[in-house]
Structures are given as C-alpha cells and as structure tokens.
Design goal:
The protein has 15 helices and 14 strands. By secondary structure, the protein is an alpha/beta fold. The structure holds adenosine-5'-triphosphate. It comes from Apatococcus lobatus.
C-alpha cells in the first residue's frame, strides 16, 4: 500500500520493528489501530501495520564486535534515515569515515527479501525514510563450522550440528534462484507454524506437524534451501529464540552396516535433540536428507531383504519424530530425490510437500548472470561490460534478442544476447551444474589460449569471451553426459 501525504507523520521518524513481539507488547497497543490486521510481522506475529513499505534489513556484526545490539540498531536506523533506499535487494554501502561506530562493528548491512520486480533500479522511485517500515535484524555469525557427533567411532558420525546463524550458511538464501515464490512460501509457513506453537494453539483442533518435505531431482538446491531457511529463521526470530541449532542427520550412517547399532544411534541422536528442544529459548532444526533411504529400508525389511534391526530402527526414528511434535520450538526439514520411494506414512506427516525442479530459463539466466558478475568482482575477467541486473532475467528471457532496455549500448546488447543463448542451451541442467559452468568455462578459455602458442602472453579475458566460453562448457558438459548415458 503506498503511503499518502495525509498519512505522513508530523515528526518524521523511522518506524523500526524488531523480532517477535511478546503477547503483552502486541498489536492493539500500537499507535494507529486499523480495522484489520494486514499480514504477519517479520517474526510471524500478527501486527497492525501502518501504511509504510516494509523493508527487511539484515545487519551482520563484525566477528570481533562486542557492542550492545540496541546501540547498533539505533545507530544503523539513524544512519539509514539519511540514505536514499530502494525496494531492491542489495548491500547498503558506507563511505569510509562516514560512521566510525558502524564501520568498526558492522560487517554488512543488506536489504533482503524485497518483492520480485522486473523494473531496473533507475526506473524505481526512491523510498523516503518516513515511508519505510524498517525491520532491522541484527546478528553475529557463528564462525565455528559444524561439529560432528562422536557417537559412532567405527563409522561416519550419525549427525552434525551447527550453531545458527552460521558463517557456513551465510548468503546461501540469496544465492538460490527459483522463479516460483517457494522461498517466501517456506518462510511464511515456518513463521506461521512457530507462531501457532508459541501461542499454544490446540493441536487437537488445528493440526500441523512442523515437517517440511522438499522433493525433486538431484542438484536442485533442496539441501541448501533447508539450511538457508533455518539460517533465515534464526536471524528473523533472534529476539524470541536467542539460540538456534541446526542438526543434520546422516540417514546413511544410521541405517548402514551396523544395523544392530542403529536402534541405539537413533536413541542417542534423539536424546541429544530433546536436550536441545527442552530449552525453551532454543530453536532447533532437524534436517534428514534423502528421507527415502529410511522408508525404503522399512519396505525392504517387510519384503524380507533387510534385517529386522533395520525395521526396528526406522520405526524408532518415525516414532521419535512424532514425539517431537509436542515441542513448539522444533522444525523437521526433509528432502528426497525419489518421491515414489517415500513411505506414505511419512508423506502424510509433512505439512508442506514442495517439488523443487530444475531451473527455468529465467532462473538459469539469473544464475549465469550472477556467476559472471562474481567472476568480474573477483577480477578473473575484465569488468568491460555492464551486465543486466540479475532481476531483469525475466524480461531478458522473454526478449527475442536480449534487448531489455532502450539505453543499452552495443556491447551490453551483444552480451545480453549471448547470455540468453547460453541459458537456452542449458535446458535441463540442474542448479548445481550451472554453478559449475564458470569453472569449466575458465578451463576452456585457458585451453584455447594455450593452443595459440607462447607468442600470446596470458591476458585477462573479457566478459564476452567468458560468455562464449560458457557456451563451449555447456557443449562439453552435454558431450560428457551423452558419453556416459548414451
Ligand atoms: N535454484 C538454484 N539456484 C542457485 N543455485 C542452485 C540452485 N539449485 C542448486 N544450486 C546450486 O547447487 C548446489 C547443490 O545444491 P544442493 O546440494 O542443495 O542440491 P540438492 O537438491 O540437495 O541435491 P541432491 O539431491 O543431489 O542432494 C548448491 O550449493 C547451489 O550452489
């Protein structure tokens, strides 16, 4: 809803919203009650919104910062009030010496999760500070990677845990490109589920399990999406849950060769999970990748081809998962490559069953543009052409020849047309294969250069040369595939 002049505050001031509101501090006490609640706030709580444009801003603290979060929040809010902001994802930069307090305590300030748009920034109206409903999320990343469980000395461990928000999962959310609103849908679902639990909604009347199932072909980002969702929620809900933990269960190790040990491993794993979820201010995410491996073990056991221990262990795991339902602060995330192989009893438990497919032309273009942008940023290729903004991928995909604006010069038009062609040729590639292309393309370029002989000293490739090399890498990948699979 766009703000009107009449709705302006007389005293211009930023409206800063933070984290979950406690029941006492909720809506009705808000200054300007409206007739209906508009949408859940950043933490899933229903709030009476004023007519401002919501802007989610993540403030990542420097690892060495010990500053008070409240002071940081106030300093960043004051700083942003002097800036021209746009409703577009991206970093908010600081000039050197502009604000030494922020500079010495903050690693990055980033606008995130703005609605999808196909408009170039130049055509968008800037937001004035009184128009913004500023939602600041201040956090510090945990630098200590994942810790393996030491419960299975003879084999790979049965789970790994991370304290969130973790450096390992930083910016994974932003790197995943889908042209459906799957990311926002998962975020909204998880926020609603946690809100229902937090408010003690009666599960006999309204049923939900806090179980998500993502299904789709390999390399489409399912595992990454689970990790990114957990990280995002840990950041969004930091005021309500100061601690968040991500537990990645290694289903293969639970049900591998040590079947007689499996039951014990499942018990130990859940004893650890229960220990965490019993802390009310700790939000716990449990990821079980390739969930079909559990249920297929059960099916095989029924048909007599797996030991009875396997069936006991799988049943124990499903029972334990059911037991987690009574804790309000846990979300179970599962993935599968083969939907048909999943036990129906499990599919039924999942509240959200989302199919994640290979990227569409628009998503492929977006991914390829972001890859080439990264090569430019890292100085691996020349920054000689301004690439189309990645969010223009949709318009570019719909264009015939890569022309997406009247102000494109010849080099930009050529680059856009070449990008479009490469993206069209990658039909059927997974996100994982697309993210590998820059590396393959660089190797292709080096090979071509070596063939030119020693008279040509290596020079930094230009952007267009790199896009052309992407085309060669795509053909090489297709050749490898047909050699492998016929
Ligand atoms: N839609 C996408 N957008 C951007 N990157 C993607 C996308 N899909 C996959 N990737 C890239 O592929 C990598 C592998 O993804 P991930 O392992 O999460 O896929 P997966 O679906 O869980 O695969 P598998 O089923 O084989 O375990 C990610 O790190 C990410 O860089």
């Amino acid at each position: 809803m766009s703000p009107s002049v009449q709705q302006m505050d007389i005293q211009p001031q930023l409206h800063v919203q933070t984290g979950v509101q406690t029941p006492e501090a909720t809506p009705k006490a808000a200054a300007k009650p409206r007739e209906y609640p508009v949408q859940p706030g950043p933490s899933g709580s229903w709030q009476w919104q004023e007519d401002r444009v919501p802007l989610e801003i993540e403030v990542c603290l420097d690892p060495s910062s010990t500053a008070d979060i409240g002071e940081i929040r106030a300093a960043v809010a004051a700083h942003l009030s002097s800036k021209t902001l746009f409703q577009q994802d991206g970093p908010v930069t600081l000039e050197e010496g502009e604000n030494t307090f922020i500079e010495s305590n903050v690693e990055s300030i980033t606008i995130v999760d703005t609605p999808a748009t196909s408009q170039p920034q130049a055509f968008r109206a800037p937001l004035l500070f009184w128009q913004i409903d500023l939602r600041l999320h201040v956090f510090q990343l945990n630098e200590e990677g994942g810790a393996e469980a030491d419960d299975n000395p003879d084999d790979i461990s049965s789970y790994k845990e991370w304290e969130l928000p973790s450096r390992d999962f930083h910016q994974v959310w932003e790197s995943l490109v889908y042209d459906t609103d799957i990311k926002q849908r998962l975020l909204r679902y998880a926020q609603s589920a946690l809100l229902f639990s937090d408010r003690g909604v009666n599960t006999a009347l309204i049923s939900w399990n806090r179980v998500v199932l993502l299904q789709g072909p390999p390399g489409t980002g399912k595992t990454s999406l689970c990790k990114a969702l957990a990280q995002k929620l840990a950041i969004r809900l930091i005021d309500r849950y100061p601690h968040s933990v991500f537990v990645e269960v290694n289903a293969h190790s639970l049900f591998s060769k040590w079947f007689s040990e499996s039951g014990k491993l499942v018990s130990r794993l859940f004893a650890r999970i229960i220990e965490m979820v019993e802390e009310e201010d700790c939000l716990v995410f449990v990821l079980i990748d390739e969930i079909e491996s559990l249920t297929s073990a059960r099916k095989a056991a029924v048909s007599g081809s797996e030991p009875a221990d396997a069936i006991r262990a799988v049943n124990a795991l499903l029972t334990q998962l059911d037991g987690l339902k009574r804790y309000p602060n846990v979300i179970v995330l599962t993935t599968s490559n083969i939907c048909e192989a999943i036990d129906l009893a499990f599919v039924d438990r999942a509240d959200i069953k989302a199919h994640i497919g290979n990227p569409s032309l628009r998503a492929r273009l977006h991914i390829i543009i972001s890859c080439i942008g990264e090569l430019q940023r890292a100085g691996i290729i020349l920054e000689d052409v301004e690439l189309p903004e990645p969010h223009l991928a949709a318009a570019l995909a719909d264009s015939v020849d890569g022309h997406v604006g009247t102000d494109m010069d010849e080099a930009q038009t050529k680059a856009a047309a070449a990008l479009l062609q490469v993206a069209q040729e990658c039909d059927g590639f997974s996100g994982r294969t697309l993210r590998k292309l820059p590396f393959l393309a660089h190797a292709c370029l080096q090979e071509a250069h070596a063939q030119m002989g020693p008279r040509y000293p290596p020079a930094l490739p230009g952007t267009l040369a790199m896009i052309t090399a992407f085309g060669a890498a795509v053909n090489a990948e297709k050749g490898d595939r047909s050699a492998l699979y016929g």
